[in-house]
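## Example record

The block below lists the input lines for one assembly entry, exactly as stored, with component labels intact.
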Amino acid sequence: QLQLQESGPGLVKPSETLSLTCTVSGGSISSSSYYWGWIRQPPGKGLEWIGSIYYSGSTYYNPSLKSRVTISVDTSKNQFSLKLSSVTAADTAVYYCARQRSMVYATGWGQGTLVTVSS
Amino acid sequence: EIVLTQSPDTLSLSPGERATLSCRASQSISSNYLAWYQQKPGKAPRLLIYGTSSRAADIPDRFSGSGSGTDFTLTVSSLEPEDFAVYYCQQYGSSPPELTFGGGTKVEIK
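Predicted structure tokens for the full assembly:
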């Protein structure tokens, strides 16, 4: 059974870089049918897509975040990662990693990890 | 960028009642690219419907989706206690590839 698990610091200082990793188990990140994405949810608010990556390394980003986002993949570890630079309090959110069928919809989600931006 | 507007913001219903949730797109989208998710407090969203009307694995048949063009609907035929949650619609745009979500509809117990 597919499982996704986010990991990384729960507290990041303003202007620094947020870094998270998603470890995939129960399935291969190199599957040709899926993209792997990051989605976030500020406390009490709705969902926002951050970006997605294919196992080959092709990436797509939310235009509103594109200048600050880097998503990478490590197929040898069955992991993909998110870096978000120059964070502010507005980046405080629960960050989810997800498996996306052909990038169209998310069929599986991690449990989410809360990242707070504060000094 | 396509904007998805969900209505109502909150739906107050009793168990056993029918819930009808609306998702309206700012421009026409392919029915292949519209999905619905359910989210309970403190949990990750769960895929309910993809391709406008196809139920995801293990989703009971009281959940159904319909629509085309700019207007899409999620219907829960008879609410069970576990169905009280927030529901989000989501669309996939292909040029460039991106996902957008609606603002959500909360279905609460009346």
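The first strand of chain A starts at residue 3 and ends at 7. Chain A has a mean pLDDT of 97.
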